Amino acid sequence: QLSGKWFLVGMASRCSYLAEHSHQLEATTVTMTVLDGQSLAISTFRKLDRMCWEIRQHYLPAQAPGRFLLKGEGDCSKVDVVVGEADPSSFIILYYQKGRSISVKLYGRNSLVSDAVVDKFEQRARAVGLSEDVTYYFPTYGFCDSADEFHVLDGEL
């Protein structure tokens, strides 16, 4: 159900980098592929310095359905990923938790989603203590569809 192309619509996070660079947010798309019926291969396409990059990640299945684990370098960099709410035909809300830090992301099948979906996303962000001042929306134009072989990052960021 999660397979296919998604557009990153919004993100709620206390990440200081995001706050400092929010004026430079780039249109971002994600392609999800379900592997072996459980884990997810994620390809994120976005611009960095006007070049299209692809970032590849692998979400491993966790204990329960709708829960995944993103492993980085070392034990401290694991990220728990939880599907908060989804309508596979239109939107998905994902929680990312690393230690005590939590972020909420809204993806849409289109770069624009309904006001009702935005309201759900903002309610879920507020429920975990993330207010409008740490909620960011991404551009709806200028997407990358691919990256050349020299602009692919494998692994976890």
Automatic annotation (TrEMBL):
Q: Name one GO biological process term.
A: complement activation
Q: Which domain of life is it from?
A: Eukaryota
Q: Which InterPro entries match?
A: A1-microglobln, C8G, Calycin, Lipocln_cytosolic_FA-bd_dom
- The source organism is Agelaius phoeniceus (Red-winged blackbird)
Q: Which GO terms describe its molecular function?
A: complement binding
Q: Which Pfam families match?
A: Lipocalin (PF00061)
Segments forming domain Lipocalin/cytosolic fatty-acid binding: 3-137
Which GO cellular component term is one of those annotated? blood microparticle
State what protein this is by name.
CO8G protein
* Alphabetical keyword list: Disulfide bond, Secreted, Signal
Location relative to the cell? Secreted
Give a yes or no for keyword Signal in this entry.
Answer: yes
**Membrane spanning residue stretches:** none
